[in-house]
């Protein structure tokens, strides 16, 4: 069992090549399909716990919850289908690394730290189309085009959190936005007279972000949280040349957590992102437009090891607007989620999972997805 | 209380088993991936768009010229004997000297040749024009003194009836392989009386224009041989029969018309062989930044392709590893390019010639240090009288051009939609 745990953690944390996020038909727009800065526990609550969860990167003050060193790795599998403008695709699936974390505390001090990884935006797609074109003065040739991208914009954040008092934690984090994507455009001809047209390019991404946050317990059964994050422009580099700069948003988030019973936690997190700041940069690239986004997540956690229940039950609901659209219609998504987890080895290891059913629609597309997440945490 | 504790323990164990099973299932499922989906453009496509642009570029060829003498007739791997209204080509062969004695059997003993019964001349025919029942190769006795400087006119008098020693019939069933003729013992008097060396001339004879290509001594294949059947002095008896064989020492083919290149045209082929060198000035945004999917070199003949009726000129386009003019080293056509860079043109052809050179333009993008120049040559080189002459960049009309189909660079760095 210990070997299995170690292997799973290694799989989830050491393989950067698979370090992408959940995918979507909307991944071709803007900077990609946005990832979520949360771990499996928060996912199972729809994201409601995100503002309070130490194993999330939304609020740096939440890292104050770490009282020991821990390593978390996770893998997530998407299974999805969609229809868009009369076309449809089904049976799509991919598995990626949605979240990883190394965290702990400085013994004897009120300081905790957290280094997190999550995909800022998924940039993987593989789109194929066939057509018949007329070239060379009427030469009718059948062609097959393939436009693909494999990679992600990644966020690696380092947070420091301070326990100011038993009721107040604050934190700050620096976010390094990095990552890469291998993009390719291929045109193949059925006629042997024509050779493959291939354009391949390796894109690199650069950016920085800074966030601050606080978690305040107004009452042992009422906790509030707030965080603020500001990012620079996302610079895209191709062949050592900067080819685009897209403004990333300012993000404000807030959360409320109620504990009506020691075994029942209800939490809601609201996030607002000013993605409209990117409109002019995207327009200059001839790309999709962008909208500000609201995201409201709410969920329950019932039971858990702290109250002697071996299997906590987590439920959640989420509504989110998506920032990028090819039309004036802003896409949105609704998630319902379920999850649980179990501790091992005298609480030195834990496995958590979540299952999400996701409904997305807007701008002529309608997408359905299942998203399964599994994470392993070791506390050596 | 005890029941509750047992229940908790049981649930904890069940959850461990379930979590482990879920981990294994998810890890196994993680091995597969399918993200291939139909493109829904432009709304759900990246901003990247693949477009093929066609461009015929008459001014893409410059500083073109022709250089003759790459393969001289006596260096060619074949020699073409031919007969046409405009040209006559004869083959001439000088064999190595026979020995005065012939080794008898496997004993290692040898005996002096006292009389020659006959000779057998064997030729390796590689190609011929369409068969005619009356086609034959006339074998003439020649004097020994000829070399690479000898001209057609020098030896023409020896191709008369008085020097004819044999005829080698080429029935229409023979399209290649070894053909032979028996020469009488006195057909080559020089062998008997003088130097022991034999020289013969080969002339193509047919009521129709035609040609025959004979493998020459410069080929790696076994070329022509001459076998002597003789009476050999033997101890104890008067004479015994013996045979020996000699190989070709020197061969070439001589023809009645000039094959020199015309400086105002792009000349390819002929003998001595001529190559054309074409330099290009295709815009760098096409060669260096785009994906060339098809490129065709278009050449307009300035006159019908020369050559004996029925012959075909095979032209190959090569890239150059460096451009130093006439002696520019070529990069031979790699086998994987299939039919690219090669075209067959029959004698008398006067229409536009198109040669696919896609592989070369793509090689230039992959290796920017390569000169953007082309070499046109005939293959096999120098073995045929066939020669093409194309209009050059200095011509008023019909200048060489490139027809390039290419996909411009695709913008892949930005998100899609419109």
Task: Give the helix/strand layout.
The complex is a heterodimer of chains A (380) and B (418).
Chain A: H1 2-14, E1 33-34, H2 40-44, E2 70-84, E3 87-96, E4 100-105, E5 111-122, E6 125-135, E7 139-165, E8 168-189, E9 197-219, E10 222-231, E11 233-238, E12 241-247, E13 250-261, E14 264-273, H3 279-284, E15 289-290, E16 293-302, E17 313-321, E18 324-325, E19 332-344, E20 349-362, E21 365-378
Antiparallel strand pairs in A: 1-5, 2-3, 2-4, 2-21, 4-5, 5-7, 6-7, 7-8, 8-9, 9-10, 9-11, 10-13, 11-12, 13-14, 14-16, 15-18, 16-17, 17-19, 19-20, 20-21
Chain B: H1 2-29, E1 36-38, E2 53-57, E3 61-68, E4 78-83, E5 88-95, E6 101-103, E7 110-128, E8 136-141, H2 152-155, E9 164-169, E10 177-184, H3 189-193, E11 199-205, E12 210-215, E13 225-234, E14 237-255, E15 265-269, E16 274-280, H4 284-287, E17 291-299, E18 312-320, E19 330-331, E20 342-346, E21 353-356, H5 358-366, E22 373-378, E23 387-391, E24 401-407
Antiparallel strand pairs in B: 2-24, 3-16, 4-5, 4-12, 5-11, 5-14, 6-7, 7-10, 7-12, 7-13, 8-9, 8-11, 13-14, 15-23, 16-22, 17-21, 17-24, 18-19, 18-20, 18-22
The fraction of residues assigned to DSSP E strands of chain B is 35-45%
Strand order within the widest sheet of chain A?
2-4-5-7-8-9-10-13-14-16-17-19-20-21
Number of domains of chain B: 2
Percent range of helical residues of chain A: under 10%
Approximately what portion of the residues of chain A adopt beta-strand conformation? over 45%
* Spans of at least 5 consecutive residues with low confidence of chain B: none
* CATH class annotation of chain A: Mainly Beta
> What is the count of distinct domains of chain A?
1
Low-confidence stretches of chain A: 1-21
Shape call of chain A: elongated
Shape of chain B: elongated
């Amino acid at each position: 069992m210990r070997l299995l745990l170690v292997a799973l953690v290694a799989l989830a944390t050491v393989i950067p090549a698979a370090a992408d996020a959940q995918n979507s038909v909307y991944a071709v727009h803007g900077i990609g399909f946005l990832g979520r800065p949360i771990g499996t526990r928060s996912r199972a609550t729809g994201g409601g716990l995100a503002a309070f969860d130490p194993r999330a990167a939304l609020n740096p003050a939440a890292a104050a919850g770490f009282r020991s060193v821990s390593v978390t790795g996770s893998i997530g599998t998407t299974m999805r289908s969609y229809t868009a403008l009369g076309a449809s695709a089904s049976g799509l699936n991919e598995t990626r690394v949605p979240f990883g974390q190394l965290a702990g505390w400085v013994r004897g001090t009120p300081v905790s730290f957290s280094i997190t990884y999550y995909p800022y935006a998924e940039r993987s797609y593989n789109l194929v189309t066939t057509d018949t074109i007329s070239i060379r003065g009427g030469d009718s040739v059948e062609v097959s085009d393939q436009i693909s991208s494999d990679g992600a914009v990644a966020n690696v954040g380092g947070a420091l959190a301070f326990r100011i008092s038993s009721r107040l934690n604050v934190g700050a984090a620096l976010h390094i936005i990095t990552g890469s994507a291998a993009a390719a455009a291929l045109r193949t001809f059925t006629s042997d007279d024509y050779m493959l047209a291939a354009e391949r390019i390796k894109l690199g991404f650069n950016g920085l972000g800074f966030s601050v946050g606080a978690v305040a317990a107004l009452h042992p059964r009422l906790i509030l949280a707030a965080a603020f994050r500001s990012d620079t422009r996302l610079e895209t580099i191709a062949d050592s040349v900067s080819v685009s700069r897209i403004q990333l948003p300012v993000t404000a988030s807030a959360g409320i957590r109620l504990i009506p019973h020691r075994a029942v936690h209800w939490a809601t997190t609201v996030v607002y992102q000013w993605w409209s700041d990117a409109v002019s940069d995207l327009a200059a690239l001839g790309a999709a437009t962008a909208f500000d986004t609201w995201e409201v997540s709410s969920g329950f956690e019932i039971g858990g090891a702290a109250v002697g229940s071996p299997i906590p039950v987590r439920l959640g609901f989420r509504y989110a607007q998506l920032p990028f659209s090819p039309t004036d219609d802003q896409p949105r998504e609704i998630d319902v989620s379920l999850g649980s987890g179990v501790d091992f080895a005298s609480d030195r290891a834990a496995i958590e999972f979540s299952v999400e059913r996701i409904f997305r629609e807007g701008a002529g597309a309608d997408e359905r997805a299942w998203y399964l997440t599994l994470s392993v945490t070791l506390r050596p | 209380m005890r029941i509750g504790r047992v229940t908790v323990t049981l649930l904890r164990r069940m959850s461990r088993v379930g979590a482990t099973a879920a981990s294994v299932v998810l890890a196994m499922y993680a091995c597969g991936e399918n993200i291939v989906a139909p493109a829904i453009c432009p709304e759900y496509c990246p901003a990247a768009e693949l477009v093929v642009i066609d461009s015929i570029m008459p001014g893409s060829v410059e500083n073109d010229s022709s250089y003759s003498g790459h393969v001289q007739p006596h260096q060619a791997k074949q020699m073409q004997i031919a007969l046409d209204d405009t040209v006559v080509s004869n083959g001439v062969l000088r064999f190595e000297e026979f020995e005065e004695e012939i080794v008898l059997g496997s004993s290692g003993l040898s005996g002096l040749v006292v009389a020659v019964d006959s000779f057998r001349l064997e030729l390796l025919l590689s190609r011929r024009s369409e068969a005619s029942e009356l086609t034959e190769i006339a074998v003439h006795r020649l004097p020994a003194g000829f070399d690479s400087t000898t001209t057609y006119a020098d030896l023409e008098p020896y191709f008369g009836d008085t020097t004819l020693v044999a005829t080698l019939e080429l029935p229409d069933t023979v399209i290649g392989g070894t053909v032979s003729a028996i020469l009488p013992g006195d057909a080559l008097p020089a062998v008997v009386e003088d130097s022991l060396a034999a020289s013969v001339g080969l002339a193509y004879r047919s009521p129709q224009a035609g040609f025959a290509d004979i493998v020459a001594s410069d080929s790696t294949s076994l070329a022509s041989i001459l076998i002597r059947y003789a009476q050999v002095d033997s101890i104890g008896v008067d004479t015994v029969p013996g045979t020996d064989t000699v190989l070709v020492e020197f061969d070439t083919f001589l023809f009645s018309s000039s094959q020199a290149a015309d400086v105002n045209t792009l000349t390819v082929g002929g003998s001595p062989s001529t190559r054309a060198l074409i330099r290009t000035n295709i815009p760098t945004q096409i060669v260096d930044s785009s994906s060339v999917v098809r490129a065709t070199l278009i050449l307009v003949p300035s006159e019908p392709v020369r050559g004996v009726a029925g012959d075909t000129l095979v032209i190959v386009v090569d890239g150059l590893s460096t451009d130093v003019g006439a002696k520019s080293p070529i990069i031979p056509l790699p086998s994987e390019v299939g039919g690219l860079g090669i075209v067959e043109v029959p004698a008398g052809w006067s229409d536009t010639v198109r040669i696919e050179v896609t592989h070369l333009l793509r090689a230039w993008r992959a290796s920017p240090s390569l000169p953007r120049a082309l070499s046109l040559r005939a293959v096999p080189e120098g073995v045929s009288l066939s020669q093409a002459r194309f209009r050059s960049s200095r011509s008023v009309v019909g200048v060489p051009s490139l027809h390039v189909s290419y996909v411009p660079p695709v913008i892949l760095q930005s998100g899609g939609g419109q």
